[in-house]
Amino acid sequence: MLGASAADATLLGILGLLVGSFLNVVIHRLPKMMELHWAAECADLQAGEEVLLERPPETEPFNLMVPRSRCPHCGHQIRWFENIPVFSYVALRGKCSQCAAPISLRYPTVELVCGALFAWCGWSWGLGWEAMAWCGFSAAVLSLACIDWDTTLLPDDITLPLLWAGLCSAGLSLTETALPDALWGAVGGYLSLWLVYWAFKLVTGKEGMGYGDFKLFAAFGAWFGWQALIPVILMASVIGAVIGIGIKLKGELREGGYVPFGPFLALAGLTAMIFGPSAILGVIGL
Q1: Which helix (H) or strand (E) holds 20?
Q2: Cα–Cα distance between 156 and 161 in angstroms, integer?
Q3: How far is CA 248 from CA 71, 184, 244, 268, in A?
């Protein structure tokens, strides 16, 4: 018979698989929704003049709920039994049931990672508000990592709620971080990368990172406290340097030689959640 921790981990792990399936929708659609919104704003600004960027045709609503998921190759509408996390991917052998086009391995990977993170929260904190708070943290950070890797965007729609959730969780004692530490962690996280951004820009004339990185680091400060800022940024920098060098050696750098920093920050943040911020220094050998 499963013990309490194992049962809690199993239940939240199943929930994580379901949430992971929804995160795949968020990762794919939220950047597109942002682009449509920007295009519409540009069209409004240029109304009455020569329109260089036309408003996208408003054929049907496009958000996180509609339209229903379709195969990008043939337009086949995904049926409910083809959308069961992980199991449908295995049953379909990673191919569309209509046109046999390959389904990206990203989908089951995100579901499995989200399920594993939720299960870890259940094992560590049981079924309760603290575990649910960290499950929400995990889901937000995982989606931000994937979106930033794909598009170099860290949407305010996720980073800002994540920041406020960290402060509220500290205020409600849902995390072990005291509210003053969370507050100064948010301030320190934002200002530290903001100062690095401007120092780099003044010296090189280039932008080394985006404002979304400031907000994500501020969110980590809110969740873990100001004491965690140095371990988290050190780990993110080490991972980023190693992976960046590897990508460069393979000749796979993107146009402009840009590697998004958000995914490395996200990995450091998830590591801090699992092992604790102080353990990061030992992981990177400091």
Answers
A1: helix 4-45
A2: 8
A3: 33, 36, 6, 22
| Diameter over CA atoms, the chain | 71
Locus of tokens 């109304």: 47
Distance, in Å, from the CA atom of 18 to the CA atom of 130, rounded to the nearest integer, reads: 20
In the block, which residue shows the tokens 């929708």? 25
| Residue among 232, 198, 231, 202 at smallest CA distance from 216 | 232
Which tens digit of pLDDT belongs to each residue from 250-285? 777 766 667 899 999 999 999 999 998 877 766 555
Query: pTM here?
Result: 0.90
C-alpha to C-alpha distance for 45 and 196, rounded to whole angstroms: 33
Q: Verify cis geometry, omega within 30 degrees of 0, for the bond prior to 67.
A: yes
Separation CA 127–CA 111 (nearest Å): 20
Spatial contact of 194 and 214, defined as CB atoms under 8 Å apart: yes
Instruction: Say how far apart CA 224 and CA 227 lie, in whole Å.
Output: 7
Q: How many Å apart are CA 101 and CA 278, to the nearest integer? A: 46
Q: Which of 122, 133, 118, 128 is nearest to 167 (CA)?
A: 133
